[in-house]
Structure formats: structure tokens, C-alpha cells
Amino acid sequence: MNMLLLNKVPVWLSAFTLLLLTQDSVSTSEVTACGVTVDPPANIEIKDPGFLGYLSIHWTQPASLQNLTDCRVRYQLQYYDTYEERWRSVRTVKLTYAAQFDLEKPVKVRILTMLKCACTNGTEVQGEETEKVYTPEPTGMAGSRIRDFHCVYYGKEYMECTWESGPVQPPNSQHYLYYWHREMDETKECPEYIVLSEVRRGCRFPRESLLEFSKFNMCVNGSSPAESLRTAYFSIEVQNHVKPAVVSSVHVSEMDGLLKLDWSPPSGQVPEHCLEYEIESSTLMANGKELQQRKVLENVVLDTSYDLRKEAESKKTCFQIRSKVSMYCADEGFWSDWSQTNCTEEKETQYVETWNHLSLVGLVVISIAGVIILCLSLWILKKICIKKSSKKDALYTLYKQKVNETMPTILSPIFK
Hints:
Elements: H1 2-28, E1 32-33, E2 36-37, E3 42-47, E4 54-60, E5 71-81, E6 86-92, E7 96-100, E8 107-117, E9 125-126, E10 130-134, E11 147-154, E12 158-164, E13 174-180, E14 188-189, E15 193-196, E16 199-206, E17 216-223, E18 229-236, E19 242-243, E20 248-255, E21 258-264, E22 275-285, E23 290-297, E24 305-309, E25 314-325, E26 342-343, H2 347-415
Parallel strand pairs: 11-19
Antiparallel strand pairs: 1-2, 3-4, 4-7, 5-6, 5-8, 8-9, 8-10, 11-12, 12-16, 13-14, 13-17, 15-16, 17-18, 20-21, 21-24, 22-23, 22-25, 25-26
């Protein structure tokens, strides 16, 4: 049995070697069109302008095609995106192209020539592909590369990127962060470092230093008295790192067995139409058991409310809300923190508050009625007093007239 296996191994290796040789022969064979060889581009170069991974690829037209007339020459360029781990392809008539690469991994580029002439009957002939690989050599102390690099764009107002030191951290070492995006002429250093225990642990970017829907490149390196620290490269799109503020002003109301939940959008610069919400509810049943339920609102645009039917046996229902940027405004993002818990009121509490409300209304009505009665009483008393005073004045006037009439009759005999 062992002898049979040993006899089969060389045959398998020979077949594999033959396959490799066949592939190699195909890759080196020439492709001709219109009597000329469609050679791959010449003088391929990968240049680093210092934009933290945004590299320029340059090449020249193959010599075999330089004297052709009435022909169109194009180039198909493929490069490996190490961030998304897939090949990207582009066709161009230019002799240069720029793309984003991770400078901590090999840079792989493939390019071929495409020729279309009258003699090719309108068909575009592709030449053989050539590949160029550039492998950056890491510099700096081994084990000193930072870890756990993490960026959060808080409410689209400012972004914080934080990290932890590498396993090897020499004494008196210091980290530096540099960044670049396509609207910058050169790289810049972190505008505001986050310092914990006298050690730089992150960088805070103001809103005006950021650019959305574009590669935002960063590198973190460092120095120490012993040796420089290992450089780490990162490339993000800031709109995919948004964390909204906490949802505020949550209000719960109940009417005819229907619960209505209303809230206000979180503060910050995130547009309302870019937000989606998630609701978490917990219901206290009549038997005292608590049941957890989660309900999700997807693709909420302008409506910041939600209605649901109240459980028939429930005594109280509580809600929490959080928000996130929807898929229509970003590829990903972070959920906000949960809002404060808001609950419906238990029936007993509702009855007490209803009774207190009615009592207050009754007290106000009684007070108003008492004031009206008092005012009427005073008005009637005033009328009575005025009437009595008028009658008294009339009697006094009559009495005075009588006295004046009788006094001359009485006094006349005396004076005689």
C-alpha cells in the first residue's frame, strides 16, 4: 500500500509541474494584431507622493505600437484592494492612474494593452498581462506598532480616533498622527491629541478638518530614545463612522388601548432623513412578570413617532430609543446610546391623578362661585344701604319742614 502511494506521488507532482509550465508558456506567448505585437505597457512605475498610501502608477506605450495610425490604444489596470481584499479594475487611455493602497501590505498591480484598429474588424484585441508587485519593508522597532485603532464621528460634529500602545513600548516614547485627504496639498499632524496619563492615546479632529465620501488617510508612528516605533497606516471614510447623539424628549401617551410614542431627533449635524431608530420595550404584566420585547423602526425619514397596541394584561410599558445613520446615507455606522427609559403610568396612578385633577377643577369652580356670590352679596348690601340712607334723608327733610311750619305759631303769643 505504501509503495503504491510512493509511486503515485511523482506522477501528481509531474502533472502539477506540467500545469505550471503550461500556464507560464501561455503568459509569455505573444499576441499580434494587424501584423504587430500587442505588447504590455513599458516602464511601469509605482510612485509614492507622500499621501499615506495614495500611490501613483505610471507607464509608457509599448514601442511596438508607437507608429500605428487609425488605431485606438487603451489599457486595463487591475490592482488589489487590501482593505476590501478584492481586485479592482479600470480601463483608461491615460498613462497614469492613482489608487489607495495599504503600505503595510504588498502593492499588486496588473496591466495589459488593448488595441482596436480597422484591420481588427472593430474588435478590441487584448495583449498579455504583466504584473508588478512592490513589497514595503517595515521600519521601526518590532512589536511597537499601535493596536485597537478606532474612530468615532460624534454627531458629525467632531471625530475621535483612539489607540493602544503596542506590546513593546520603550520608555519615553511618543506617538504622532498624520492625516491626508484629496483636498489637501500635503499631510498634516493631528490638530489636538488626546492625552491620558501623559501618553498620547488618540486624536480629536474638528468637523472642518474632515472630508466625507473620500479616503481619509492616517498614519501613526512614533519615536523613542532607543529606536523609532513601527508605523501603522489606516484609511477610512468618515461618514461610515458616525455615532448620533442620544435621542431626547421621548413622550409616551395612552388612549383607547393604543400606545403612542413620540420623540425628538438627536442633536448634532446628522440630517433627520439619514436616521433610523430602534425601540426596545419592556412590559410589566399584571402578575408582576417582566417581558422583554424589541421592536425596530427601519428607514424612518421624518416621522419620529410609533404606535402600537397595548397588551391586554399589561400594567405598565417602558421604552428606550436609539438611532443610527441609515443605509441610504452611509454604508455603516454606530448606534447611539439608549435614551432614558420612559413608561406608561399604571392604572392606579392614572385614577389617582384623574381624581386629583377633578378635585382641583372642582376647587377652582367652587372658588370662582364663592367669589361671584360674595360680589353679589356686597352689591345687594350696598343697594340696601343706599335705599335706607335715602329714606332717612327724606324723613329728616319732612321733619324739618314740619318744625319750620309749627315754630312761628308757637312763638307768636310770646312775642305779643
